[in-house]
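Instructor's aside before we start: the two examples that follow are unrelated to each other. I chose them only because their records fit on one page, so don't look for a connection. First example below.
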Amino acid sequence: QVQLVESGGGLVQAGGSLRLSCAASGSFLTIKTMGWYRQAPGNQRELVATITSGGSTNYADSVKGRFAISRDNAKNTVSLQMNSLKPEDTAVYYCRADIARPVWGTTVYWGQGTQVTVSS
């Protein structure tokens, strides 16, 4: 019953910026961890950045210093500010939410993805 909806993807020139947003809706109390992953054609889906409910962040080495993840726990949203974009950042970006539930443990939910294209 949980749904994640991404927005903010698009086409940008190298060196530019984009801000992705993800809104979670459904029947849950809290989201333990939210994050962004990406997948380019022919590649595996890879971690971009994550943030816990307490605000602890984790970034892929390739985006450190360029991307910043944030969340609003009250609104159940997570954002990814992407600066100094490179053509290598071109991919479909997916929102992920990890929700802990009694008995069943942690369940992972994925958004439908939003395309980010960086031109050289």
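Example two begins here.
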Amino acid sequence: QVQLVESGGGLVQAGGSLRLSCAASGRTFSTYAMGWFRQAPGKEREFVAALVWSVGYTFYGDSVKGRFTISRDNAKNTVYLQMNSLKPEDTAVYYCAAKSGPGTLRYRAAYDYWGQGTQVTVSS
């Protein structure tokens, strides 16, 4: 039983930056990893980034590597996604997810809990 609440989405101009937050509550002690996915209209949900909670290992999707950074705040049970050099193709609903056990980090089916999503729109 983990609840996830995303925040920080909005409208930004191409080249700008935005930071998303995902606050976890409930039985967060069971969380092995946190991930970010995104989904644009007419497209499949795409892996963006993941973090292994206990050690801080991070992984990124090819489309965002070098521009996005995932990080954590243990005291706040919060994961962040810092997005820089935003492009119009980054426009999507961004979802936070939590995984309760070890395994692959890049597939949405491997995650147990999901937030409601937050809209990110990048204008050109």
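The mean pLDDT is 96.
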